[in-house]
Design brief:
The chain is of the alpha+beta class and 117 residues long. The protein contains seven helices and four strands; from the N terminus they run βαβαααααββα. The chain has a four-stranded mixed beta sheet, with helices on one face. A hairpin with a 2-residue loop joins β3 and β4. α2 packs across α6. The two termini are 16 Å apart.
């Protein structure tokens, strides 16, 4: 079973939902805006992909951070704390399969390669 993590009202998420639904890929959705995200889950993701891969530096939330807040991300713990406080900083969608991140962001070719038989 796949779990898609993200925020419901996000254009990239809408593209991912449309693609997954259109290809009959079964998934559960975890909205970390509404449900939050555990420190344990973020720690596992950071261990799998690294903190820099998880932070969406292209988004509005990152740009609204002060220079000091951005520079205070000096290690995994500080990155995880900030991502928990400001879940919009986390790249989306993130897709897990059996507890492992298998996809970050939306890329139609990568999705097709992974889920179209």
């Amino acid at each position: 079973m796949l779990t898609v993590f993200g925020i419901k009202n996000c254009n990239t998420m809408k593209k991912a939902f449309d693609w997954l639904d259109g290809h009959q890929v079964t998934y559960e959705f975890h909205d970390y805006k509404k449900s939050g995200i555990s420190r344990e889950k973020l720690t596992a993701w950071v261990q799998q992909k690294g903190r820099d891969a998880l932070i969406n530096r292209q988004g509005t939330t990152w740009r609204k951070l002060s220079t000091e807040e951005q520079q205070n991300i000096t290690d995994d713990a500080s990155a995880i704390t900030l991502m928990q406080e400001k879940t919009s900083l986390i790249k989306r969608p993130l897709i897990e399969e059996n507890g492992r991140l298998v996809m970050m962001g939306f890329n139609e070719q990568a999705y097709a390669q992974k889920w179209v038989k």
